[in-house]
Amino acid sequence: MRRSLLRRTVALGLTVLLLIFAVGCEKRVERQEKPKEDDKMVVGFSLGTLMEDRWIRDRDIFISKAEEENIEVIVNNANKDSDLQYKQVKTMLNQGIDVLVIAPNDSNTEARCVKAAKDKKIPVISYDRLVSNANVDVYISFDNYQVGKIMAEYLTENVPKGGYIIIGGSENDSNSKMLYDGAMKVLEPFIEKGDIKILAKTWIDGWIRESAYDFMREELKSHKNDVKAVICGNDSLAWGAIDALSEAQIAEKVQVTGQDADLVACQRIVTGKQALTVYKPIKDLVKKTVEVCMQLHKGEKIKTDKVIDDGTYEVPYIFIGVQAVTKDNINDTVIKDGFHLYEDVYQTE
Fold first, then answer.
1. Which residues of the chain have pLDDT under 70?
2. CB distance 134 to 168 below 8 Å
3. Which member of 39, 149, 164, 200 has the lowest number of beta carbons within 10 Å of its beta carbon?
4. 9-52 confidence digits (pLDDT tens)
5. What start and end residues bound the annotated signal peptide (predicted)?
């Protein structure tokens, strides 16, 4: 009787142990077979500034598009401080980004940002502005040479004779020089014939609107308001120039061009104070950039339009088309594309 009880007790104990072991094994197998979450791709988006309306759009559209592709974005704004941009890039690299997208504050100094990324084997996209002497993996921007041509072609058609003033953006921004080269390509034959005279030209460091205003004000005094057209590096500089023209009460008599299709520029166009802006579809630029980010992350080959000289290296270049915007086609361009609302441009309630 005692032996039978002992045997039953031992058997029961072994059964319990086997059950515990089986449950433990089952849990371990369950943990092993649980699928791992895919690591999210992380992109560092380093912006030199957010002072102009267009850069805020770049940031917001970029974040939205990246989220659609399940990409995490770390955004930093350097507030036009090159040293701060370098520090921010190094911090992003330490945070483990997979791709660096950089719109440099200063094209000539941010090669150090690219070098820091390359030292960690992180691919780099130069966004909108080209980093000089850096050999980035790819440069994605608008056709800035064409921007300058569009401005000059419009002006020479509408003001084929007279004094012109050119107010360019930062001299350390490669886009400024490309725009200038494009404009001069069109203007040179008119200058050679003596029909057009460049009364003055300057570069505005930091694209500061107030500096454009000061320059324009002085030139109007020097030339006794005898100015027919002004080519400006962007709409912010155009704003400064137009303020000076307004003070001289000739704003609607002088043809002024800019770029970026800022809301205030579009409002000036419909009221006749600005002749033209160049619309650069940021959503297309962002879409292509996010697409290339994913390709670089996967190690895929990037299809580019051509190469561009960064001062030392030939860099793969992808450019996005641009479009002239005037009073005649503003409804069919920026408004139709949803870039601005009709009621905002025409300031209707």
1. 1-38, 348-349
2. no
3. 39
4. 434 444 443 333 333 433 232 222 333 345 799 999 999 999 88
5. none
Joined together, the tokens standing for residue 264 give 């205030």
Q: What is the DSSP string of 229-247?
A: EEEESSHHHHHHHHHHHHH
Q: Tokens representing 69? A: 């592709």
DSSP 191-241: HHHTSEEEEEEEE-GGG-HHHHHHHHHHHHHHTTT---EEEESSHHHHHHH
Question: Tokens 């203007």 sit at which residue?
Answer: 187
Q: For residue 67, give the amino acid letter.
A: E
Neighbours of 335 (CB within 10 A): 19
What distance in Å separates the CA atoms of residue 165 and residue 183, rounded to the nearest whole number?
A: 12
Strands ordered across the beta sheet of 99-103: 71-77, 41-47, 99-103, 124-127, 138-142, 314-320, 306-309
Residues 6 or more apart whose Cβ sits within 8 Å of residue 117 = 89, 93, 100, 123, 124
CA distance 150 to 12: 91
Is residue 278 within 8 Å of residue 147, measured between CB atoms? yes
Residues in a beta bridge with 165: 200, 230
* The two three-digit tokens of residue 169, written as one number: 């953006």
| Cα 93 from Cα 72, distance rounded (Å) | 14
Q: How far apart are CA 196 and CA 189, in angstroms?
A: 9
pLDDT of residue 53: 85
- HSE toward the beta carbon, residue 11, CA cutoff 13 A: 6
In this structure, the chain runs to a length of 349
* pLDDT per position as a tens digit, 178-196: 999 999 999 999 999 999 9
